[in-house]
Write a structure and sequence with these properties.
Distance between the termini of chain A: 44 Å
Strand order of the largest sheet of chain A: 5-4-3-6-7-8
Order of helices and strands of chain A: HEHHEHEHEHEHEHEEH
Number of strands of chain A: 8
Number of helices of chain A: 9
Largest interface: A-B, 70 and 70 residues
Oligomer: homodimer
Radius of gyration of chain A: 19 Å
Strand content of chain A: 15-25%
Helix content of chain A: 40-55%
Chain lengths: 211, 211
DNA sequence: TACTGTGAACCTATTCACAGCA
DNA sequence: TGCTGTGAATAGGTTCACAGTA
């Protein structure tokens, strides 16, 4: 946190991808050429990113995977596995319920500690290994449980309202599964993972490469 | 398709977001300042993007929402609602099953027409309003059903294998819900929507804005 | 030899600033 | 007046090319 230079946005996103890649990479060493093959990112740019992350440990035959992974983690300010960051799920419909049950953050520092839904019967019918609350309790539970992040999986027409309440309750980041574009206060980050937006991005990308 | 200039990647992504915003916007007119408020994107940049999309219909008191939306759609090469594009879901675990049941592409040109899982009991136990197949049928069903896009929701350790088979079967775009970074052939686009990657991106973004 | 690390060149994207217009 | 549209200025990102190294 202290040594952090400003890593530009574009580099940050590539480094986060690299971190994911390294986390599941089954080898001891890796070169920029191998990373290029796996990610499609130019190898010179990969080396620049790694250099931006402050890692100088590459030797002439590649990077040591564990060292590189740790350097990237530190440069991005990602928590260690034992520095738990608490999350909640807002919206326990089909998608929200599935996300809460399918162990999406297993083996990561993120931990889901609460679920919310405005329909009381959802919170009563479902079960999880963390408590489920009616949405009315959000403003109380979120600060109390030190929840910093939320997964938003409500219906589109409730999305902005819920985002407002999450932000007001102190949530600092929202993973947005809805199709709604969220307006949030400064200091709150949104990452859009709507499948429809993703597909539209894919279609647009394919069009423009097919000239 | 014919008139398409190369819209740069960054602009394309913002325009796709703008398209989503306009699709649910409940007004007749909109200005670049309002769009800035809702998306956080600088208003001058929004006007540049719109201009890049080839739309010159703005009058002194804003853009007509329907016209702008249609222009953005056309510029990105997105299909009209009646030009259906066929998709499949690969992986019918909790998440895949939820995605298939929760009407994620309702009111969009995308239509899910098949589901695949390597576990026969998943394809037999679940039901949907489209057929479910054992993964062994992928190579036959995908070309036959003219499937262009896939939602990948298998376990991480099967992700690369399934991506290979999807690409070999002719799929041109993959919405990747797994934590695995996918290596795909040229001409295949991947959009990563892993919740863990999304959260890591959020944490990294928050760090670097808190200097 | 096969890689990393990096300055310099190049290219792309963003912001500024203002003319034009309803 | 309050907006759009856009050339010019600036900032930022990417690629090149090569010295340095195990």
């Amino acid at each position: 946190m202290a040594d952090m230079q400003k890593i530009p946005e574009a580099s940050r996103r590539r480094l986060a991808l690299l971190f994911a890649l390294l986390s599941s990479y089954g080898g001891d060493k890796i070169t920029s050429i191998q990373i290029q093959r796996m990610t499609g990112i130019d190898r010179a740019l990969i080396r620049k990113d790694i250099s931006l992350a402050g890692f100088k440990g590459g030797v002439s035959n590649g990077y040591k995977v564990q060292d590189l992974r740790e350097a990237v983690r530190a440069a991005l300010g990602l928590p260690l596995p034992d520095q738990k960051r608490f999350c909640c799920i807002a919206g326990l419909g089909k998608l929200g319920a599935a996300l809460m049950q399918c162990g999406i953050f297993d083996e990561s520092p993120f931990k889901i500690v609460a679920g919310f839904d405005s329909r009381v019967n959802r919170t009563e019918v479902l079960s999880a290994d963390f408590p489920l609350y009616p949405a009315a309790k959000m403003e109380a539970v979120i600060p109390e449980s030190k929840i910093d992040f939320a997964i938003l999986a409500v219906e589109d027409d409730q999305a902005q309202l819920m985002a407002d309440r999450l932000a007001k309750s102190g949530v600092k980041g929202i993973v947005n599964f809805t199709g709604q574009v969220l307006e949030v206060p400064e200091g709150v980050a949104v990452e859009n993972v709507s499948p429809l937006l993703a597909l539209n991005n894919i279609v647009a990308a394919l069009q423009s490469s097919a000239s």
